[in-house]
């Protein structure tokens, strides 16, 4: 699971994340939403151990990210929104390399690697250099690399970017099966329909703070209306902007 306590991140005088408290339990697919600049990506990079918090605490599967960084990171798979890959490796070599970072190697890694490549239709490309892969193929390879060491927690930023409809459906099913088996997935996305249809709970960030968190029923109760997630999101983060847009068009 993911446990966040009083988490803050400042860049100079700017506070990107302010005193965030959040628990994402085992077996949950958690959606993390917010407008650009709300603090989502900063939060997820701190969870992944890429950014150091200014204050607060992060625990991944019971391991403190500051006190036990290697154990915490070993329990986690991170899927960024932009795939950065060593282009001079083949697809299967990249998966072996990724597993090796977590101390795993051998026949089991190769078997899992081939299974993941086949799942995303990359098996015919397994021995081709990554430099020949399209953007979508690279994104699928990054996703496969996050699962190859069998982490307890997956943190994913905009997972559907660059994926074709078939791959998007496979990834949705993979996330759902992964959480069904007792693992945790925390997913940031701007596609509200995906969040509404997939996630057990949803958290909404605004100006570095968590302004709402719960199931869709919880979020609807907080706004007092039986709205879709898009309407709830706008009420909490952008209703004023929507009204200004209407005023501009009517002027």
From TrEMBL:
GO MF entry, a single one: ATP hydrolysis activity
UniProt KW ATP-binding keyword: yes
ABC transporter domain span: 2-232
Domain of life: Bacteria
Pfam families in the record: ABC_tran
SMART domains: AAA
Listed CDD domains: ABC_DR_subfamily_A
Sorted UniProt keywords: ATP-binding, Nucleotide-binding, Transport
Annotated protein name in UniProt: ABC transporter
Lineage of the organism: Bacteria, Pseudomonadati, Gemmatimonadota, Gemmatimonadia, Gemmatimonadales
